[in-house]
Amino acid sequence: MWDWELLKHNSGKHRYHILSSYKNEEFQYTHSISHGTQEDEFCLHNHAMYELEYYLSGDVVYMVDGVRYEMQPGSLLLIGPTVPHKLFINSDTSFERHILYVSNVGSKSSLADLAGECLYSSDGQRIGSAFYAPEAVADMKDLLHDFGRCAASDDKHLKDLAPIFAQAVLAKLKMKARTQKPTLYSVGEDRTMDTVKEYLSRNLTRDISLQDIADRFKLSRDYCNRLFHKNTGMSIMQYVKYNRVLFARQLLADGVAASEAAERAGFKDYSSFYRAYRAITGRMPSEDYQIAESEGAPETPPTNFNT
Questions:
Q1: 64 pairs with which residues across the strands?
Q2: To which CATH superfamily is domain 3-186 assigned?
Q3: Residue 86: its H or E element
Q4: pLDDT digits (tens, 9 = 90+) for 120-163
Q5: What predicted TM-score, i.e. pTM, was given to this entire model?
Q6: I need a surface site. Which of 65, 72, 85, 249 has the fewest CB within 10 A?
Q7: How deeply is 81 buried, as exposed, middle or buried, from its count of CB atoms within 10 A (0-12, 13-18, 19+)?
């Protein structure tokens, strides 16, 4: 979910301009300029995808897993699936960035595998997020610039190069991860629950029960649910329902009919989907489908949690 969709109700007057974008089943790329103020208050969230942010300008901070990252021009941040993070705007200065989301829902793609390999430190430690200062990723600027040019092109031959650039960006980042430590990085406090959340994200649309999760991770039902609630503020099944709704919302934004979106998101019947959608979003599915069809509506990648 884009940051501008995570503004708390009546918070600020955030505006954005998309310069170029490209989307397929594996990833979504956007080059955008956002215009916000310190009054903008964003939701803490996580989602079932890897999120890469490369900043060209602006004065913003990300809090990720309790670690503070000041996004300088030329800096890069990679956040893993299910890792909680939140954006803070420090001034009225516009901020420009390249954003690459790599889906981690369902069967993992080679691109998701590559993104995951970028979140190991040079000494083999699994990390939740990695931040690189401008001097450490100076060679990424031209690569991302060309990525944006291809994504914006009307020439199909150039536009079709976008997936190759997505692969190249992550391949270059993997080289850095293998040879040098990130400038800063975060490690989740509870790796068991992080693993549970990642499993739920990858199996979101399947038939999942609390007992299935408890059995898989060799925990009692009550203990598993209690740990999960402590970590996320939700029970396991609340988390599943919430994420299914947000995944369905993304499908609606892609122009998928509500009944099909409900089925693809893992709901067994439309009435339970409709009730859950109204309870979580405060809207009817048809409203978001209509917005998706309206001219100029932003594309939304699959998302997995906001509070």
A1: 67, 85
A2: Regulatory protein AraC (2.60.120.280)
A3: strand 85-89
A4: 876 777 888 999 999 999 999 999 999 999 999 999 999 999 99
A5: 0.72
A6: 72
A7: buried
